[in-house]
Amino acid sequence: MNSNPTSLEVHVAGIRMKNPVMTASGTFGYGSEYADFIDLNQLGAIVVKGITSVPWSGNPMPRITETPPGMLNAIGLQNVGVDGFIEKKLPYLRNFDVPVIVNICGERLEEYLEVTEKLDAADGVAAIELNISCPNLHCGGMSFGVDPELTYELVNSVREKTALPLLVKLSPNVTDITVIARAAEAAGTDGLSVINTLLGMAIDIKTRRPMLANITGGLSGPAIKPVALRLVWQVYNAVNIPIIGMGGIMTGDDAIAFFIAGASAVAVGTANFVNPRAPLDVIDGVHTYLKQYKLDSIKELVGSLQT
Amino acid sequence: MQTSTAAFPKKFDLLTPIISNEQVAQDHYLLRCACPEIARGALPGQFIHVLISQAGVLQAASLLLRRPFTIFTVEGEQISMLYQIIGEGTEVLSHLKPGDPLRVLGPLGNTFHIPLDLHPAIIVGGGAGIASLMLLAIALRKSGVRTLGLVASMNRARLLSVAELKRIGVEMHIATDDGSVGHHGFVTEILTQILEQPHAHELSQPMIYACGPDGMLRAVTKIAQDYRIPTQLAMENRMGCAMGVCLGCVCKVRMPDGGFEYQRVCTEGPVFNAAEIVW
Ligand SMILES: Cc1cc2nc3c(=O)[nH]c(=O)nc-3n(C[C@H](O)[C@H](O)[C@H](O)COP(=O)(O)OP(=O)(O)OC[C@H]3O[C@@H](n4cnc5c(N)ncnc54)[C@H](O)[C@@H]3O)c2cc1C
Ligand SMILES: Cc1cc2nc3c(=O)[nH]c(=O)nc-3n(C[C@H](O)[C@H](O)[C@H](O)COP(=O)(O)O)c2cc1C
User: Fold this and answer.
1) Is A134 part of the annotated catalytic residue set?
2) Strand A64-67 to strand A46-51: parallel, antiparallel, or no bridges (unpaired)?
3) Ligand 1 mean position, distance from CA B250 (Å)
């Protein structure tokens, strides 16, 4: 493949991708929703909505609100459950030549293990992304991701259950992200996804009520990009495994900044809600940048920050 | 809501110049643009998701998310939307001029169910809610269905679409909060009056279609239950992606087994059976 000077192909954490641009979990459904706009074969990878051992109904409404420039969400991981996913969603995705990365979550360790075992046995899963950073769950989720020992135990246990490539999705809502990143690395994860949403809130001053029924929610979109870049850069300097960078990526140029900070691939999230072709536009933008700066591959950019 | 198995039209994201954007009542504007691909497939009740930014470009702005509006009318290749100024997005929208580019995603969502032997249709629109019922009213009148139109407004200055509805033969009833025109009070009081009339038994296969503020929809649902009239509501929840992925716009829907499920207004809706909505 290297004969093509502007090939975008990358091999990250054991996942081979046509380009380094994937969709962020929870912002691209299960793939079929965007069929009118995107040929899924053109994506680097698809990361599907967080899956749990049984279907979850999610949080009461209102669940989202816009904040400049971004949004808060408290969806509460409404999802079809692992069996529903394997039966109803995975067969569609098998029609495409694109790695499917399944984001998983749970309230207890056993739930993560159960979901992992089922996905490991299913046909068509390229990798598992462990969400230990969902800010909208009252137990589980983020409580794993803020404690290095719990992180180690969880990642290590999941690691023993599967040979599939493993990504651990880190929370920005911690004092020192590098401590959690190192714990996940030591437990054997193949890569890290950085970052999940930042815990925030918004208030309706006329009624003095929170804008979200859950009161707090996860902030995403362009508003969080500087924070995400900083965290990717800190994690890059702390570990020796690849990073999937995300947080506010709207354009190819945004993605390039993440590569320079240390990401080996990126994920496009909230941008999908604004522009149904967002991942393709990001891929085009990355391609244009590589040509303009006469670079042969993304690798030359990764962690190339000049200080 | 349970809809026919007919596939919904393909979705498009079009960058198109605004043809006109004019005030039609206090705080209310009518915007028209050419969207041939959307106009071709649009069904009553379906909506568009509009990117409101100065130049219609896809980039980060303080107005990041799009805003949903029902397709008000379809004329040839043009579609229109009737909107109320609510906050920042609709305020900015009202300042856009003919020729300004707009990014329009659609057509989205499901459509109203129109039973074969419908008689009569009662449409109830509160404020800008009537915008969601216009294409339906046009379709009903085209197929000769007797249609009663009940519209509610704060006052005469905010009254919408009455002349258009009359022109297509909808029997109009008006309620205003201040009594400046029509019934002084709630539109639901008119609804009850109609259902209490001596000839009410002639309403052989009635159906109520409603869109408006939550309070009005709840009141309509209650009356519909009392008089056992099937009712469809067009829901207008806060919305994120409108593509069915963010799960932000859900409403709580009763399931046959007695439980409930959160369903997406953008995908399973915006039209729901009133009896299934858990408020
Ligand atoms: C399927 C659908 C169809 C719609 N069709 C029409 C239409 O034809 N004409 C029309 O005038 N409006 C319609 N709406 C409502 C319209 O989308 C909102 O009024 C608009 O998004 C407000 O944007 P804004 O930026 O002006 O206000 P914002 O600044 O976003 O909001 C101002 C305030 O209004 C609240 N709000 C925001 N969105 C909504 C909403 N969807 N419903 C209730 N409250 C909201 C916010 O919470 C906030 O408190 C529709 C909504 C949906 C979901
Ligand atoms: C509506 C919504 C739902 C999300 N659901 C999930 C999820 O299920 N699992 C997960 O790991 N992250 C989830 N995320 C976080 C995103 O995957 C991503 O990490 C975050 O939004 C930052 O990227 P962005 O700014 O590009 O959106 C969700 C984000 C949003 C906005």
Assistant:
1) yes
2) unpaired
3) 14
B19 in Cβ contact with B64 (< 8 Å): no
Structural domains in chain B, sorted by start: 12-108 (2.40.30.10), 121-234 (3.40.50.80)
Superfamily grouping for domain A10-300: Aldolase class I (3.20.20.70)
| Residues of A whose CB is below 8 A from B242 | 273
Taking only the tens place, the pLDDT of each residue in A86-125 is 999 999 999 999 999 999 999 889 999 999 999 999 999 9
Domain map (residue ranges) of chain A: 10-300
β-partners of residue A265 are: A244
Alpha helices in A38-176 (DSSP H): 81-84, 90-93, 109-121, 142-145, 148-161
Residues of A in contact with B65 (CB under 8 A): 66, 71, 273-274
What's this model's pTM, rounded to 2 decimal places?
0.95
Question: How many angstroms separate the CA atoms of B57 and B154, rounded?
Answer: 36
Question: Which ligand is located closest to the Cα atom of residue A200?
Answer: 2
Ligand nearest to the Cα of A102, by number = 2
Ligand 1 atom nearest the C-alpha of B239 is 53
C-alpha A24 – ligand 2 centre gap (Å)? 6
Write the CA distances from A220 to A70, A159, A236, B209, integer angstroms.
6, 29, 21, 37
**Does the ipTM exceed 0.85?**
yes
Residues 6+ apart with CB under 8 A from B232: B1, B112, B113, B207, B208, B209, B210, B271, B272, B273, B274
Chain A interface mutation, best of B11, B237, B246, highest count of A Cβ atoms under 10 Å? B246
